[in-house]
Design goal:
Blueprint: E1 8-9, H1 13-25, H2 33-52, H3 61-67, H4 82-99, E2 107-110, E3 119-122, H5 124-159, H6 168-201, H7 211-215, H8 220-224, E4 229-233, E5 239-242, E6 249-252, H9 260-269, E7 278-279, H10 288-296, E8 306-310, H11 318-321, E9 323-329, E10 345-347, E11 354-356, E12 362-363, E13 366-367, E14 372-383, E15 389-395, H12 398-407, H13 411-414, H14 417-423, E16 434-443, E17 446-457, H15 460-463
Parallel strand pairs: 4-8, 4-9, 9-15
Antiparallel strand pairs: 1-3, 2-3, 5-6, 5-7, 10-11, 11-12, 13-14, 14-15, 14-16, 16-17
Protein name: Helix-turn-helix domain-containing protein
Organism: Saccharobesus litoralis
Keywords: Membrane, Transmembrane, Transmembrane helix
């Protein structure tokens, strides 16, 4: 954290509770129930021991797993590091809070690395304010002392008492001192003015943090051809119907209907619904559409070379005329699902499971979406029918799509040993068609991290093969 705390303190209970309330109401931490629950427990643990007059001891990992996350009493931290992951995430969120919304707080709550205890530190900006006040007071004091020293001389001069006046040499010294002081002030003012003018004339150097990402072989092809790019957002297949009781129109989402083909199968099974159910004209988007786009859009220094379109509006011509980047769920792939024909996985009927064609291992969301769960996503890159480049970042839930977009636009991740291990054989021009599977961890839809777990070549001929 840039605002590195320097001086330890022990805030009183009321100040700490008020501080905690502001943290829980902030945009940085307040949107995550798990972060709020965790920081609340840590603070109240500190207050409880403090009120008892006991020596403060940080809670144990097992205690947090049981009390905060509802794990069983036989939880073994040696086999599951999820508490450490959540603490690490909370530590980063607190650092962000004190750099942004909480930058004017009098103190900060810290979780020192290597443990789960709290420490409370003065923030440097508070110390700086105090130091500045002290300096200003000292200057004012010295100014007053000098003014008090000179005032009697001026008063005696006005009274005309020649016997008490300083000698000519003393007057000369005072005059020279005052003249020198004024001259020094003029020079200093001129220097400041000149430097300000020069600073305004110099163009600030703009650091483009995305340039190394554009130059990486993963993304470089996107900017080396002449085609514009479409960021394709996966929207969900929505339906309209009339409420049989009120006759009012309403929008509905049937999880088993994700395409026109699914809808026809539905009508075949329930023919009486054909008269009352229609396809909705309004799009329905999940949060991955917004948060994932946030990571991809800055790749484009020239905004005229990129557009955003819903997958439901994608045309066959778009698959030929544009470079494409799909962001969305497996169930919303639409026309981009052609890549599944050349994939190493088969996609389940409703887009809720992937099966490895070689090992028959099944990948799907495990756990409770309202608590801790594991999601899977697949990143694919392959050549389109006209030499255009198509990327797809698809997952079962928001977590995998957002985490893949974040991971693949992070230069540290792109240069990590983990990524290189799976990607290095596809880095040359000879291997443009491949897929990477990601495993992502989340708690209550809070994204905690991701890793590449497998990779494989795509059969591009199968992708663009004419249907039989």
């Amino acid at each position: 954290m840039n605002t590195r705390p320097e001086t330890a303190l022990k805030p009183n209970k009321n100040a700490l509770i008020e501080h905690l309330t502001r943290i829980e109401a902030s945009d940085t931490l307040g949107r995550s129930k798990v972060n709020c629950k965790l920081i609340n427990y840590l603070v109240n643990h500190y207050i409880k021991l403090n009120e008892q007059g006991s020596e403060y001891k940080s809670p144990k990992e097992v205690e947090l797993a049981i009390e905060v996350f509802g794990r069983a009493s036989d939880f073994n931290p040696a086999e599951d590091a999820f508490v450490r992951v959540y603490i690490s995430n909370l530590r980063k969120k607190l650092e962000t809070y004190y750099q942004t919304e909480g930058k004017h707080e009098a103190f900060c709550i810290c979780i020192p690395p290597g443990g789960y205890g709290l420490s409370f530190q003065h923030l440097p900006n508070t110390q700086l304010k105090a130091t500045t006040t002290e300096i200003a007071t000292e200057i004012a004091t010295h100014t007053k002392l000098e003014a008090d020293h000179l005032a009697p001389l001026a008063d005696k001069n006005n009274l005309g008492d020649q016997s008490d006046l300083p000698t000519k040499k003393q007057n000369s010294n005072i005059f020279n001192w005052r003249t020198g002081f004024i001259a020094l002030g003029v020079i200093l003012l001129a220097s400041i003015t000149t430097n300000l003018w020069l600073w305004q004339q110099v163009e600030p150097v703009k650091v483009d943090s995305y340039q190394p990402i554009r130059q990486h072989t993963l993304w470089r092809d996107l900017f080396s051809n002449a085609k514009p790019t479409l960021i394709v957002v996966g929207d969900l297949f929505m339906l309209n119907e009339r409420d049989p009781d009120t006759n009012r129109p309403r929008g509905i989402r049937d999880y088993g209907i994700n395409s026109y083909a699914d809808l026809e199968d539905y009508f075949a099974q329930y023919p009486h619904k054909r008269a009352s159910v229609t396809v909705a004209q309004s799009a329905f988007l999940l949060k991955n559409s917004v948060f994932a786009v946030k990571h991809i859009l800055p790749l484009f220094a020239d905004p005229t070379r990129v557009s955003i379109r819903l997958v439901s509006d994608l045309t066959p011509d778009d698959l030929r005329d544009y470079n494409l980047i799909y962001l969305g769920l497996f169930k919303s792939l639409g026309a981009i699902d052609a890549y599944i024909q050349g994939s190493n996985f088969t996609l389940g009927r409703h887009g809720t499971a992937l099966t490895d064609k070689t090992t028959n291992q099944v990948y799907k969301v495990t756990g409770n979406l309202q608590q801790e769960y594991t999601d899977y996503g697949v990143f694919t890159k392959f050549v389109g029918p006209s030499g255009n480049i198509i990327y797809s970042l698809a997952g079962f839930s928001d977590a995998s799509v957002i985490q893949m977009a974040k991971y693949l636009t992070n230069p540290n991740k792109l240069n990590s040993d983990e990524f290189t291990e799976h990607y290095q054989m596809y880095a040359s021009q000879a291997y443009q068609n491949f897929e990477l599977m990601f495993s992502t961890s989340s708690f209550d839809r809070t994204d905690l991290g991701s890793q590449v777990i497998s990779s494989g070549k795509l059969n591009v001929k199968a992708i663009w093969a004419m249907p039989h």
